[in-house]
Amino acid sequence: MSEDNLKHPVVKTSQKKKRSRNEKRSDKGGSSISTPLVKHNEGEKWYQYTSEERLEGNAKNADISEVEKNAAFLFQRDVDLYNQLERKRGGSEGAWLSTMVVKGTAADKTSAMQVLIQRSPVHTLSHVNALVSIVEKKNIREAYSTLGVLKELFINELLPPTRKLIPLSMRPIADLKRLSAGSQQNMERRLILWKFESDLKGIYGTFVNAIEKLAGGAVENVCAEACRTALDLLAERPEQEQRLLSLLVNKLGHPNHRLASRLIGYLLQLSRRQPNMRPVIVKEIERLVYRKNISCRAQLYAISFLSQLQLRAGEVDLAASLLNIYIGLFRMLVMKQKMDDKMLSVLLAATNRAFPYAKGEVEKLIKEIDTLYKVLHQSNFATALQTLKLLYQLLLNSEGISDRFYAALYRKLLDVEHSSAQERQLFILLVKALKNDSVDQRVIAFIKRLLQVS
C-alpha cells in the first residue's frame, strides 16, 4: 500500500474543521452517518465484534501519527454520536443516570457509571478512566469501595478472556483498506475499535499501577483486598499477567506476617484455578527466593507455598524445577554457621513431596548425601525425621539402603523429643526400611529396640 493510502483511509485531519459533528456524510455505497458506527447489542461483548489482527513477528509500522490522529477523531465522533442518540431516546432511567454521574454521591456516581459502561463499553471509556482515577487517589475509603466495581467490569465486560489487548502500534495499518474490503465505513469502524482497545490497554495498566500501590500500603484490609483483586484478575484474564503475578509473589515478603501468610492461600488458589500457570508461578517464586537481601521469613513463606503445590504423574519438568530450588536453598542454609531448623524442616518436607515425581533428579541429590547426614545429626527431631525420609527415598532409588542409614535410624528410636504425629511418621518409615533390609540380625536388633522404647 502506498504512503498516500496509509494516510487517507479515513477522514483527513485537515477536513475535521470543515465538518461539524452533526453533519451527515456519505460512504461509497451512499449511506449517511448520523448514528455511531459501533453499535452494542445487549448480551454481547465488544471483543466479540472487533477484530484481532496484529502485526506478525518483529514487524513494525511506519510513522502512524496521522493514523493515530484520525483514529482519535473518529473515536470521539462516535462517542459524541452515541451520546446524542442516548439523549434523543430520553427516558427517566437515562436521565437519572446522567444526573447521578454529575451530581450524585460518590456511591451513586460509581453505580451510575457502572451501568453506563455495561450498556456500551466502547462509548463510555471516559467513565472507566474516571473510576480508575478514584482508585489512584489517596482517599483509601473510596479506592477500597471502587476496587470491586472495577474488578467486575474488567472481568465481565472489558477484558477478552483468551487474549491480551492489542495496542494501535501493533495493528496492521498498511492492510487496513484490504481488511475492510475497501469500504470507508468499515475502515472507520475498524479504526474506532482499534483505538478503543489501545486506550483500554493503557487505562488497565494504570489500574494495575494503582493496585500495586494499594497492596504496598499500611492498612491490612486494603492490602488484602488489592491482592485479592490482583488474584481474581490474574486467574480470569491474561492481560498484564506477569505484573499481577509479580505483585502477588513479592507480597510474600510483606512486613505484615498475617498478610504474607494469606498470600500463600491466594497463590494456592491461583494454582488450582489456573493449573497451567504453575511453571510460571514456580519461576517467579525462584526469582524471589534468590533475590539479594530477601528475608528468611519471605523464603520460608515461599517454600511453604511450593511444598503445597499439587503435582500430578508425568509432571517431571515441574517437579525437577522445584527440586532445583530446594537443593539450591539447602546448600545456602547448610553453609550458614547456625542452621535454621524450621526452614530446613519445611525445605526437606517439600523435597520429600516433590521427589517421587522427579526421580530422574536423584544424582543431584546424591551429591548432597553427606550434607544430609550432617543435618540429621545436628538438627531437632522434626528436621531429622524429614532428613531420614528423604535419605530413604534417595537410597532406595539409587545404591540401596546403606548401613549408615540404618545406624542413624536406630539412634533416632531413642529420641524422646517428638510428638505422637512424628512417632507415626517414624514408625511408617521404620516399617518400610525393615521390609527392605536383608540383614536378619539388624531387623531383630530394631525389634528389640522398639520393645525397649514402647
UniProtKB/TrEMBL annotation:
Region (Disordered): 1-37
InterPro entries with a match to the protein in the record: ARM-type_fold (IPR016024), CCAAT-binding_factor (IPR005612), CEBPZ/Mak21-like (IPR040155)
Record's signal peptide: none
Coiled-coil region list: none
A cellular-component GO term for this protein: nucleus
Record-annotated CCAAT-binding factor domain positions: 384-454
Family statement drawn from the similarity comment of this UniProt entry: Belongs to the CBF/MAK21 family.
Name of the protein in its database record: CBF domain-containing protein
Record organism: Ascaris lumbricoides
Higher taxonomy: Eukaryota, Metazoa, Ecdysozoa, Nematoda, Chromadorea
